[in-house]
Amino acid sequence: MSKVIERPRYVCALGGAIGTIQSLPRAIPILHSSSGCGGNLAGALSGASGYNGGNYCGGQALPSSNVSERDIVFGGEGRLQEQIENTLKVMDGDLYFVVTGCMVEMIGDNVHAVTKRFKGGELPVLAAETVSFKGNSYYGYELVLETLFRDFVEKTTEKDAKTVNLWGVVPMQDVFWKGNLGVLKNLLKKLGFETNTFFGQGETLDNLKNAAKASLNIVVSDAYGIEAAKVFEEVHGVPYLTVQLPVGDHGTSRFLRTVGKALGVDDIKIEKLIQEERKAYYPYLERLADVYNDLDFQRYATVVGDPNYTQALTRFLADDLGWLPELVVITDILGEEQKERVLATFGDYESGLRPEIVFDEDASSVGGYINRHWPQNQGQKYYKGFAPGVILGSVMERDTAEQFKAPLLPVTYPISNRVVLNRAYAGYTGGLTLAEDVLSLVVAHR
Amino acid sequence: MDYIKHKVPPVREDRLMACQAYGGTCGDLSKDSKKGCLYASKRTFSQTQGCQLNLSLGMISSMRDAVMVIHSPIGCGGNLIQNAGINKVFQKLRQESAVGLRWINTNLSEVDVISGGEAKLRQAVLKAEREFRPSAILVFNSCVPALIGDDIDGILDDLQKQVSAKIVPIHCEGFKTKIQATAYDSVYHGLIRNLVGEDKGSKPEVVRTLEEEAEHQAVISKTVNLLNVGSMSRIDEEELVRLLKALDLNVRILPSYSHPDDFTYAHEAALNVSICATHDDYFVEHFQQMYGIPYVMRTIPIGIANTNKWLRDIASFFGIEEQAEKLIAAETAELNKAIEPFKAEFKGKTAFLTGGEVRILTTAELLHNLGFEILGLRGYHFDKYGEILLDEYLEDVPNSEKAIFNIGSGQVFEQANLLSKITPDLFVGHIGVNGSAAKQGYPIFPLFGQSDDYLGYKGVFEVATRVSRILKNPAFNKNLGSNTRLPYRDSWYEQDPFTYIDDSASVAARIG
Predict the structure, then answer these.
(1) Same domain, A364 and A404
(2) What span is annotated as the signal peptide, if there is one (chain B) (predicted)?
């Protein structure tokens, strides 16, 4: 039996699907669901994602069949057909994507039969059954990608050895997704490749439509987008590689070596790029030489969040910043196989650090793990606890941070106490941004 | 009204024949509403909106020392995520020791949908009790458990024997109604059934001497319940409390930011004072029926005219009209002098308002009084309470019968079309639709906010100063207007904004 969850950091498959579709250029989601579903999810999608907003078509602009009791009794297919017809008339998009909520699934509406009637029309209408009780936001992301890869990406025999696709950075759930995608695209460009990220700045639906020409699919995650990569391989014959989200020198250098090798890039070229990037990276960190050491800026750290970020942040803190991120709490719902894959990403540190990794979905549990890892003061005179400590997590760690009197940097979803526009934490430049942000916390209260 | 003995309250479509799709003028609406033919209209193209669960959480998630259990798949109640970690600031305005939002989602999976979600509900309630020891556990029921037929009340009755927190079931399945305001009834229904009144089984009755009892009754005879379901900020509350105290009344504020214990003696009051019929009619009617407590509910004290009406209604109940007139005279004289410069500034400017029926009509009157011409209004829904207010508005504001009136929650495509045609100088909007209007370049005054003052006499001045400030430099939205695009085809703006309202049923009713 799945667990009840105290303050979940994700919504349902429908929510993940809407967030994914509305992050595609000029795509219009059409909800076939109860009238409240879109409104219910809006705050999680836009408000909790660093005020990401609704993009082109989100929030209350989302077309929705708004089925209610009468449709539940008599079936909602007629209402859906009418809604799609009129959506095509009113909403200005290049791709329309029907997604479903719980109720229409339970009454057995066949959305595929309805959308099929729009096949061959001027505008593409896709559909996915984003059954909410079958999974969370990440599952919705996966379902949308699978549908796009099956039904929207055009089949081709033409291959372009210098083009790759990249996903696994989940829009909205990665609050810094847009900036991060831009950074990764730039890095691959320096390796000599053009990258379709589908959701990044400046992309169009053509990047997605022509994605089958790519020579490799890079999934920047050990948890999300892998099923979609299997579908892509099956339908279009493009192989995939999973690699971790890179932050800072150590993470990014590993990323470049892994990806470069898979793409057959010459070792010398990869190492040359890494050296160049380091030449730009370390002079900035060099500025901290005095302050870091004069004021003793080393900290213990607890890292809380999804698998993509927790591994990236932990490696950055341990290997780039020389901190002690000894405790990691991963808050996603993961299967055993996924857990193993994720666990494997927390090793092999240059600094030799071995963090304690815990899987727990409940937000209030975090304080308990901190107490367990750095035992509480039992009234003894000589005592060493989680001090000096910093928490990198989400806004949900605010109370825990207050309790431990530790500064909190919200990096993982949800974030509602920062505004995020084009900020990126990925890559070498992202590492510098993260160093700025986390060390600013340390100096802010001087 | 006597629904409290039922497990679930009726929906507003049935109880109040509430309308959720209409397009016309204020004059048309007043006439059509009296014919009773608005209820059946629907949309053939629609955009998403909120649901009962959503609004129920918005209304009562601020309750202190409570844990919410949302019995649903993982996404329901998702709006809470944006408030997790920041809501505490508002709770602290009432009580320094307040903690942030706490909720548990039962995370119903496919297996639960097939075999029932009852075990998960038990697990969640017991977890809430064990981990947080709250005074109350509020259980919200979503669409899925309703459809799979979980016996929620049965389980919660049984669980109440095992936990010390008071369990409050709030039945708020989204698919049951398109009128989100049904949420107010759902929440009040749960609160009245489960929190009001002493639990005589667990607490000994209070024993008072004759003198003590007389004193107690004297306090009650001057006590009013002031109802706030979330659309009054703390500063608003302070303004209304100031006015009611000037009339020598004691004020108890319920239910936003309240503590579960605040309800125990809620029936020890002389009068229930509402600021909005859309919010409170269910509560005040039941309180009158169950405890004989009368109520005041005609209007919201926004703007001078409506604040005066509101105070006079209350004063007339207590027989202190003279005292009230003195207060009103002093307050309005002082205020009128203070807003004089704004009237010159706003003269000839035009405005469009959208939000709840009661709030927009009264805010429109306020803006009219400040010098604005009101070009149109959009209400979430419309019912008999709106009808009364609309008629008063038509009297208070000359030439208002030609102004547009559109009904529909969300439905920003209709709004975008309307705005492109009537181009007001100021847009006043409820949360959720302001971003859309901003992208059309309009200066925007938010209809309410948790940190701002709108109500009473002070509210009039505050609204005037903020509107003046916003109109002084609308550059941000102007830039958006020139550089962004709403997701509608150009051809949509050429059509009638009400093209997708299908009122064939009401036309039939009119003819028949």
Answers:
(1) yes
(2) none
Amino acid making up residue B329 = A
Number of C-alpha atoms within 13 angstroms, CB side, residue A72? Answer: 21
* CA dihedral (B43, B299, B431, A12) positive or negative: negative
E strands, A173-232, are: 194-196, 216-219
Quote the CA–CA distance of A288 and A290 in Å, as a whole number: 6
- CA proximity to B63, closest of B232, B229, B241, B278: B229
Per-residue pLDDT of B56-104, as tens digits, reads 999 999 898 999 999 999 999 999 999 887 777 777 777 777 788 999 9
Within-domain flag for A41: yes
Cis peptide bond upstream of B474, omega within 30:
no
CA distances from A25 to A31, A99, A182, A206, B215 (A): 18, 17, 15, 10, 69
A87 CA: distance to closest CA in chain B (Å): 7
Residues of chain A neighbouring B485 (CB-CB closer than 8 A): 56, 92
Residue B178 Cα to chain centre, angstroms? 15
Could you give the 3-state DSSP secondary structure of residue A334? coil
pLDDT tens track for B390-440:
999 999 999 999 999 999 989 999 999 999 999 999 999 998 899 999 999
pLDDT for the residue B125: 98
| Contact (CB<8Å) A36/B80 | no
Tokens of B442: 């309009």
Dihedral (CA of B180, B186, B187, B188) sign? positive
Number of folded domains that form chain A: 3
pLDDT above 80: residue A1 = no
For residue B202, what pLDDT is reported?
Answer: 67
Quote the minimal CA–CA distance from B178 to chain A in Å.
7
- What would be the CATH architecture of the domain defined by B213-318? 3-Layer(aba) Sandwich (3.40)
Long-range contacts: B158-161, Cβ < 8 Å, 24+?
B159/B122, B159/B125, B159/B126
Q: What's residue A68's pLDDT?
A: 86
Q: Could you tell me the fold of the domain covering B51-177?
A: Rossmann fold (3.40.50)
What dihedral do alpha carbons A46, A48, A51, A52 form, nearest 10°?
A: -50
Strand order in the sheet with B223-228: B250-255, B223-228, B271-273, B295-296
CB B150 within 8 A of CB B22: no
Determine the distance in angstroms separating the CA of B418 from the nearest CA of chain A, rounded to an integer.
Answer: 14
Per-residue model confidence as pLDDT tens digits over B245-279: 999 999 999 998 899 999 999 999 999 999 999 99
- Cβ neighbours of B105 in A, within 8 Å: 4-6, 8
- Looking at the structure, tell me whether residues A143 and A184 fall in a common domain: no
Give yes or no for residue B512 having a pLDDT over 60. no
CATH (domain of A78): 3.40.50.1980
pTM of the predicted protein model: 0.96
User: Given an 8 Å threshold on Cβ–Cβ distance, is B488 in contact with A92?
Assistant: yes
Torsional class of A25: left (φ above 0), alpha (ψ -120 to 50), beta (otherwise): beta
SS3 label, residue A411: coil
Q: Is the CB of A103 less than 8 angstroms away from the CB of B175?
A: yes
Backbone angles phi, psi at A165, to 5 degrees: -110, 150
